[in-house]
Amino acid sequence: MKMELIVFYVAKQPYAISFSEIEEIQTAKKGTPLPFADEWHEGLITIRGSLYPLVNLRKLLGVSFDGPQESDKMILLSRARVALLVDELDNTAIIDESELRENPEVNSRDILPRAFELSDGRIVPIVNVETLLAYTRTSYV
């Protein structure tokens, strides 16, 4: 069975997420900070009258603690009103499930359990949205 993914970058590392999990992609907005929020929580943003928590994947994955950049994008999830802050979008990938393997990065396997290899040899972990949402779920979501 084929999987359609979009590849994006966080701290120069490629990651992927299934197209079926994406509502839309927008240029990033600055969130309104919340007191006592986790460091990876960049605040709340309003999109068409709805509030979305803005999750900074750089901080959540522990790959960089840089703040938002002008070139950042937001991936709005379809299954919950959550926006994922990423550095940039790359391309699409269509892979066969037989190409999937366990993420070699042990520390991030809970949120990124599976991965695939690009033609240039780079490993691309795939975001498990259900686990990500469970991990980031708090009283404001």
Textual characterization of the structure:
- This protein has 141 residues and is mainly beta.
- The protein has one domain (2-136): OB fold (Dihydrolipoamide Acetyltransferase, E2P), CATH 2.40.50.180.
- Helices cover 9% and strands 45% of the residues.
- The protein has helices at 57-60, 129-136, and strands at residues 2-10, 13-18, 22-27, 41-47, 50-56, 73-77, 83-86, 88-96, 101-102, 114-117, 123-126.
- The longest helix has 8 residues, at 129-136.
- The termini are far apart.
Top-tier CATH class: Mainly Beta
- Name the beta content range: 35-45%
Total beta strand runs: 11
Helix content: under 10%
Order of helices and strands: EEEEEHEEEEEEH
Average pLDDT works out at 90
Shape: globular
The number of distinct structural domains comes to: 1
Contiguous low-pLDDT stretches (5 residues minimum) are: none
Name the CATH superfamily assignment.
Answer: CheA-289, Domain 4
Distance between the termini: 33 Å
Largest sheet: 5 strands, mixed
Number of helices: 2
Strand arrangement, largest sheet? 3-6-7-5-4
Tell me the CATH topology: OB fold (Dihydrolipoamide Acetyltransferase, E2P)
Structural class: mainly beta
What are the key terms here?
CheW, 141 residues, 3-stranded antiparallel sheet, 11 strands, 45% strand, mainly beta
Secondary-structure map:
Layout: E1 2-10, E2 13-18, E3 22-27, E4 41-47, E5 50-56, H1 57-60, E6 73-77, E7 83-86, E8 88-96, E9 101-102, E10 114-117, E11 123-126, H2 129-136
Parallel strand pairs: 5-7
Antiparallel strand pairs: 1-2, 1-8, 3-6, 4-5, 6-7, 9-10, 10-11
